[in-house]
Amino acid sequence: MQPSLRTRLLASLFLAATLLVSSCATLSPGLGVAKTESAALASPETTTLGKRFAARAKEHPGMSGFRLLVDGADSFALRLQITEKAEKTLDVQYFVLQQDDTGQLLLGALLDAADRGIRVRILLDDALGIDGGATLRPLAAHPNIEIRIFNPFLARHEFAFLRGLEYLLQVGKLDYRMHNKLFVGDNAIAVTGGRSIGDEYFQASGEREFGDFDLAVAGPMVKNLSRTFDLFWNDRLAIPVETQPFGERSTGDLAKARAALAEHRQKMVATSVYYSEISRRDQLADILSGKRPLVWAKAILAYDSPDKASVESPARSRRASTPSRTRQTATRSSWPREARRTLPWSNGAVWRTAAW
């Protein structure tokens, strides 16, 4: 139910006063709450995906495997297939996770994985809000799903229009954002790059399409990427969603979200040409079989830090507060020319070829 005009006005005045008092500090609701630290799967080789990719990595000592994902539908299909094949863990980190067709399909797949006993960690930035739908926050009521919000806003739901005040009075709300995009299954295969989660990233929107790219990553680099996830996940600004205003959800809310996601999927199965198309694209099987080969190369990962103020000089640290870069020694012919010019700049870990 929408709050009355009087309620909205009083809330606006209260929030404005709160922000004025705290304008010199970073105010994130739930900042001091106790939370449990956790880490990526330590032994991925105990899973099927881990064994398969470890065997491939042994053929290329000291190297990691990469495959450029130019096609958005392929990239989304790969995420779904990783979710379906994971046996122990799924780590999901995004700047934006929209609750549109692709967002709901992914959330439904993550819920199915949690039902199978998979540990699911979802870490989202709050710059564009996570309250624009009823199927995300309730998933935190599942015992195998944990959701954390990076640097959350005080203003939520119907009062999100007040976020401009938070941006204006708290510089940390603008500077301390998490623009990373990472999807990791069993700490054995990762997808990272320029795509957040939403129809326009995956060729599923009838209105617009973003020209981003992703990389499928296997081999030692996956563990490095997972360490960056853990760094953000365990940071003080990564706040459990249930501590946020309107954040706590019950098993009843979870049941409603489950029903909504199941109904959405059934509708997509019955009517969506897009769903029919991505269902035929078994990207993961093609990568494992070599039909879609990985490019094996040595690589160095440079990544953003959640604590921007404490970053060392780039000469002394691989953490960066400026756009971070990774160099890899792939041959010039390994990548399409357009990709060599336009590999994603919007991710916390950005990739360039040595021949750029």
Q: What is the N-to-C succession of helices and strands?
A: HHEHEHEEHHEEEHEHHHEEEEHE
> What would you call the structural class?
alpha/beta
Q: Profile the largest sheet.
A: 9 strands, mixed
- CATH architecture heading of the domain at 61-301: 2-Layer Sandwich
Terminal Cα span: 54 Å
Enter the CATH topology name of the domain at 61-301: Endonuclease, Chain A
Nearest-angstrom radius of gyration?
20 Å
The level of helicity is 25-40%
What's the mean pLDDT score?
80
Oligomer state of the chains in this structure: single chain
Number of strands: 13
CATH superfamily of the domain at 61-301: Endonuclease Chain A
- Residue fraction in strands: 15-25%
Please tally the helical runs, counting DSSP H or I stretches of 4 or more residues.
Answer: 11
Low-confidence residue ranges = 19-25, 320-356
Task: Furnish the topology, listing elements before pairings.
Elements: H1 5-21, H2 48-58, E1 64-69, H3 72-85, E2 89-94, H4 101-115, E3 119-125, E4 145-150, H5 163-169, H6 171-175, E5 182-185, E6 189-193, E7 214-218, H7 220-233, E8 238-240, H8 251-271, H9 273-279, H10 283-289, E9 295-297, E10 303-304, E11 319-320, E12 326-328, H11 337-342, E13 351-353
Parallel strand pairs: 2-3, 3-4, 10-11, 12-13
Antiparallel strand pairs: 1-7, 1-9, 2-5, 4-8, 5-6, 6-7
Helix pairs in contact: 3-4, 3-9, 4-8
